[in-house]
Design brief:
Length: 257
């Protein structure tokens, strides 16, 4: 797949899944806008590193995905958005009756509302260009629930619903909208949790991974950011032009149960 001449905006992409998807799209030839809420020298250096590595134009634009105004500004500042990857997300785990209201509001805003705002801002650009791809990074939790993750599960189910609606509204146009639903992915955030889990359960690394962290993932293996990036590139291809409003699970069999 060659995406030369296309510009991809990837939210929440200075690390983890978002960065992996940005890398894959850049490797396929797309110019990239990476994003997070910080505005550090290392953020802009990361953009330059991607540009040098893949020979494409890469910019870093700081925007706070918890506010609709910043979400829409991100797309406006990008100037062009042929491919929109809504990836920004946060998590908090606590029982419903103890779940802090501010955490609920932040998770719904960043994980769900941001995708609405960026999509609303990007669709006119895609229509003007005559082509577009919207890829929402949902989760296995967009299709299944877990206790103590009320806001995250609600938001990710909402992302799947937004994906369906967007797919229907653009079905007669050369624009598609699909959701990738990862299970557990080995990102720096997950990697940092492993030593604590080893200490808490008095287990070695492999046992913690298999019996604790991957207990709900039948393959007992993490998905990788490269695999998610390749899935995103596929969704941008002509082979996926009749796929819209649907979900692709990359979860080692989690949602098959």
């Amino acid at each position: 797949m060659q995406l030369s001449g296309k510009t991809a905006v990837v939210t929440g992409s200075n690390s983890g899944i978002g960065l992996g998807i940005a890398e894959s799209l850049a490797a396929a030839g797309a110019d990239i806008v990476i994003n997070s809420f910080t505005d550090r020298a290392e953020d802009h250096a990361l953009a330059q590193e991607l540009a040098d590595k893949h020979g494409v134009a890469v910019r870093y634009i700081a925007a706070d995905m918890s506010t609709g105004e910043d979400c829409r500004r991100l797309i406006a500042d990008a100037g062009r958005c042929d491919i929109l990857v809504n990836n920004a997300g946060i998590q908090h785990v606590e029982p419903i009756e103890e779940f802090p209201t501010d955490k609920w509001d932040a998770i719904i805003a960043i994980n769900l509302s941001s995708a609405f705002h960026t999509t609303a801002a990007a669709l006119p650009m895609m229509r003007a260009a005559g082509w577009g791809r919207i890829i929402n990074v949902a989760s296995a939790h967009g299709l299944r629930a877990s206790p103590y993750k009320s806001a995250y599960v609600a938001a990710k189910h909402g992302v799947v619903g937004l994906t369906k609606t967007t797919g229907l509204e653009t079905a007669r146009e050369p624009i598609t909208c699909n959701a990738i639903c990862p299970g557990y992915v080995l990102t720096p955030i997950i990697e940092a949790q492993i030593p604590d889990q080893m200490a808490t359960h008095n287990m070695d690394r492999e046992t913690v991974l298999s019996e604790i962290m991957l207990s709900r993932q039948p393959s007992r293996e993490f998905a990788t950011t490269d695999q998610l990036g390749a899935t995103a590139v596929f969704l941008c291809s002509d082979a996926a032009s009749q796929m819209t409003g649907t979900t692709l699970s990359v979860d080692g069999g989690w949602t098959a149960m």
